[in-house]
Amino acid sequence: MEYFERRFIAPSVETNPFGAIAQMSPLCQADGERTIAVFDWDDTLCPSSWLNAQGLLPLYRGHVVPLNSMVRQVLSALEERIFALLTKAMSYGPVFVVTAAEKGWVEAASTMYMPTISALFKKSNDIHVVSARSWFETTFGCGGDARHWKIEVLGLIASKCFGNRHGLGSFNLISVGDSLAERDACHAAVSAIPETELFAKSLTFIEYPDAQEIFQQIDLACSYFDHMCAWNNHLDLRITRDQLHALH
User: Fold this and answer.
1) On the chain, which terminus has fewer CB atoms closer than 10 Å, C or N?
2) How many helices (H) and strands (E) does the chain have?
3) pTM of the entire predicted model
4) Distance linking the first and last C-alpha atoms of the chain
């Protein structure tokens, strides 16, 4: 994660990482606006570590990296899975892609590597791309780190969307990312709104995944997203490499 922040500013293992919730039948889809999902970008949706290992990250703003047919095939298959996950999340409520990279990186990367996702960002009113760092620096000035930036942004999202909802039923704030920054931000945001029955539900992916691991994690998240929404409590889930290897 730190590599991408710098570059674009310029356990005990169960086979199924979803544990008990994998055994339940998901309830009927919740009413709209009761669930907000927040996704990280680099190494969560975008296979940035894999692209870097292939020498396929841009060296500067506006640098267009040529992609061969094999890479395009991998990215095309991946964006189908990402599209399925994002559209499923959008069926429950607003979706945010919150990155620690500089403003414009998510849009540039999606245009270059996954044009279907780029089109989704442009056309849908239910998905929002936010640079946590750029927002923080514009609001408070320089300083902080990815964890600090995301705590502030998720706190703002939660307070705007879920504040003053006492007695109106339960709500979900779901966070999916590859670092503790996303996980900590989700749980901190929920704890700051005790008057609302709001459940923090975090899913932490592995760090520095290759393309195959991104595929597996996106598929898992999509398969169990309904279960996560239906679970009537907080969730703090983490996928490990051992679990991914066990799924082969």
Assistant:
1) C
2) 10, 6
3) 0.87
4) 26
Cα torsion 16, 20, 21, 27: sign: positive
Three-class secondary structure of residue 92 per DSSP: coil
CATH of 2-10+34-246, one of 3.30.70.1120, 3.40.50.1000, 3.50.50.60, 3.40.190.10: 3.40.50.1000
Q: Quickly tell me which residue has 């570059």 as its tokens.
A: 7
Q: Please, how many CA atoms are within 13 Å of residue 88, restricted to the half-sphere of its CB?
A: 20
Residue 51 reports pLDDT greater than 90: yes
Tell how far CA 133 is from the center of its chain: 16
Residues 6+ apart with CB under 8 A from 241: 206, 213
Rg (CA), the chain: 17
pLDDT band per the 50, 70, 90 thresholds, residue 116: very high
- What are the extents of the domains in the chain? 2-10+34-246
Phi, psi of 243 (to 5 degrees): -65, -40
Report d(CA 102, CA 93) in Å as an integer.
Answer: 26
Six-digit token string for 175: 């966070």
CB atoms within 10 A of CB 189: 25
What gap in Å lies between CA 118 and CA 109, rounded to an integer?
A: 8
pLDDT band at 23 (very low <50, low <70, confident <90, very high): low
- The mean pLDDT of 51-80, rounded to a whole number, is 95
Residue with tokens 């339940």: 24
